[in-house]
Amino acid sequence: MPLNIMLGVNYYVMSYNINKVSLNYQKYNKLLSFSKKNDSILFIKGFFGLSELKIPKNIIVEIDNNNSINLYFNSNKLSTIGKILKSFYFSIIFSIYGLVFNHFVDMNIKGIGYKFELKGNNEILVYSGNSLPTNFEIPENLIILDNSNTNNFSVLGNDYVFLNNFVNKIKNIAVPNKYKEIGIFLEKRL
Fold first, then answer.
1. Which one, 69, 140, 162, 163, has least CB within 10 Å?
2. Three-state SS sequence of 131-157
3. Class of domain 103-189 (CATH, top level)
4. How far apart are CA 29 and CA 104, in angstroms?
């Protein structure tokens, strides 16, 4: 079931061309909490950590005691802020999903001389056919699930964008070649 249906999204038209989108998170009120700082940053705290989102200038965010978040915007300028509103709305959804369920990326490496080596909980060595491996430090907000195999492991985190940026840096060391079946392959799970 999509998360926006589970959250209970309502759309209201108010007076003076001000519209309101309401996100009801009543099902997850024991796992989530929301707060604001200076009407510019929205903090979402969940089971798997904390996420910060910058609130766009043309959108006002209100946090209710009734387990809902309300987004107010001017409908006269909807064509100009429509993309911003949509982007902010989906950022909230992805953040909530990551903080309640977490995002997974399975990494698999194939080829002669290609392998991963996990050193403790804070370092990954990537051997990609070169004489020296490439070293990556694992950020604190990401978790590596070791599959006891030198060819694959899973990375999970609550920040979807940060997780994708990290695994794409690793993937760029050995870009996958499906014809030769070598390189680093990613499989994303939401």
1. 140
2. CCCEEEECCCCEEEEECCCCCEEEEEE
3. alpha beta
4. 23
Read off the pLDDT of residues 154-163 as tens digits, 9 standing for 90 and up. Answer: 888 878 788 8
Q: Where are the domains of the chain?
A: 3-100, 103-189
Same CATH fold assignment for domains 3-100 and 103-189:
yes
Taking phi over 0 as left and psi of -120 to 50 as alpha, with beta for the rest, 151 belongs to alpha
Distance, CA of 70 to CA of 10 (rounded, Å): 9
Element (H, E) at 82: helix 78-100
| Fold of the domain spanning 3-100 | Outer Surface Protein A; domain 3 (3.90.930)
Using alpha carbons, select from 64, 65, 80 the residue that is nearest to residue 21. 64
Q: How many residues does the chain have?
A: 190
Which tens digit of pLDDT belongs to each residue from 175-187? 888 788 888 888 8
pLDDT below 70 — which residues of the chain?
A: 1-17, 75-81, 147-150, 189-190
CA-closest candidate to residue 60, choices 79, 34, 36, 87: 36
Residues 6+ apart with CB under 8 A from 146: 118, 153
Angstrom distance (rounded) from CA 38 to CA 153:
40
